[in-house]
Input
Amino acid sequence: MTTHERKTVDLEEGWAFMQKGITKLKNILEGKPEPQFSSEDYMMLYTTIYNMCTQKPPHDYSQQLYDKYRESFEEYISSMVLPSLREKHDEFMLRELVKRWSNHKVMVRWLSRFFHYLDRYFISRRSLLALREVGLSCFRDLVRNQRESKKCSHFLART
Output
């Protein structure tokens, strides 16, 4: 191969690699024993996204990666954050919310770095929400929906 040729990364293979990095980040946020990201880890994740976005069609997976970026937040919030908020009440729930919001901002910061190539080219050309905004709005929307459905259930139980 010349320096300009590179192996095509298919969506499943590339996404499986990205999921390992996302899982590592989730484990770190959940306080599980996991080494921090090295600069090599970061570069491999960034390069995977770059390669998957710069392949010739039909192997340019920019839109799919943008969608999977959002889905990664939605899955984490639904499976980890919302259950941890549901099991707490009053001041304890507020403390948990503050902790989860802080962790979420860390997750947004790291994932938006891994997926940064999308922000630089794909998102600006398509006038889509920036990666940071996608990550923050996922938390806001899912937590708000959870709170409002809880209020509605509470109201219905009283009537």
